[in-house]
């Protein structure tokens, strides 16, 4: 791809998806540096602009953001494991779980904390807030589609007990494309 076309493609991706990726990073990176993480996401997008799939650019960006956030969390945990004086962190507060700070602001905070693990919170955010189906969630989080669909449906069922408006159709009637059940590639 020539440089001018690559720049135009990146600018289009940036303009179309910036707000959604920013919300996702803010949601997941509480207690970290969301501005820096967002910059890293789009720096990666710039570097790999020729490899971003047109039909799934947002999912690709979510996956990159998820990886950048995990790297930042690992880095923070590693710093906390070092003696705090050597690391220069003795005056900084320790944040146990960055997601907890964000959940305190949400109306379903107590419900989510009672029902959901970190992975479940991610699935709920991507499903309820961003409107993704099981297929996209699986791609973003690196799960099998069936695992994402099962966890998403179980969470919907649990939330429905607290708030009936959160109930939705089961994933098997969702507009997501079903998994390939043709049997190709299976041993017989």
UniProtKB/TrEMBL annotation:
<dbReference type="InterPro" id="IPR039425">
    <property type="entry name" value="RNA_pol_sigma-70-like"/>
</dbReference>
<protein>
    <submittedName>
        <fullName>DNA-directed RNA polymerase sigma-70 factor</fullName>
    </submittedName>
</protein>
<feature type="region of interest" description="Disordered">
    <location>
        <begin position="159"/>
        <end position="188"/>
    </location>
</feature>
<keyword id="KW-0240">DNA-directed RNA polymerase</keyword>
<keyword id="KW-0804">Transcription</keyword>
<dbReference type="InterPro" id="IPR011991">
    <property type="entry name" value="ArsR-like_HTH"/>
</dbReference>
<dbReference type="Pfam" id="PF04542">
    <property type="entry name" value="Sigma70_r2"/>
</dbReference>
<feature type="domain" description="RNA polymerase sigma-70 region 2">
    <location>
        <begin position="13"/>
        <end position="75"/>
    </location>
</feature>
<keyword id="KW-0731">Sigma factor</keyword>
<dbReference type="GO" id="GO:0000428">
    <property type="term" value="C:DNA-directed RNA polymerase complex"/>
</dbReference>
<dbReference type="GO" id="GO:0006352">
    <property type="term" value="P:DNA-templated transcription initiation"/>
</dbReference>
<dbReference type="InterPro" id="IPR013324">
    <property type="entry name" value="RNA_pol_sigma_r3/r4-like"/>
</dbReference>
<dbReference type="GO" id="GO:0003677">
    <property type="term" value="F:DNA binding"/>
</dbReference>
<dbReference type="InterPro" id="IPR007627">
    <property type="entry name" value="RNA_pol_sigma70_r2"/>
</dbReference>
<comment type="similarity">
    <text>Belongs to the sigma-70 factor family. ECF subfamily.</text>
</comment>
<dbReference type="GO" id="GO:0016987">
    <property type="term" value="F:sigma factor activity"/>
</dbReference>
<keyword id="KW-0805">Transcription regulation</keyword>
<dbReference type="InterPro" id="IPR014284">
    <property type="entry name" value="RNA_pol_sigma-70_dom"/>
</dbReference>
<keyword id="KW-0238">DNA-binding</keyword>
<dbReference type="InterPro" id="IPR013325">
    <property type="entry name" value="RNA_pol_sigma_r2"/>
</dbReference>
<dbReference type="InterPro" id="IPR036388">
    <property type="entry name" value="WH-like_DNA-bd_sf"/>
</dbReference>
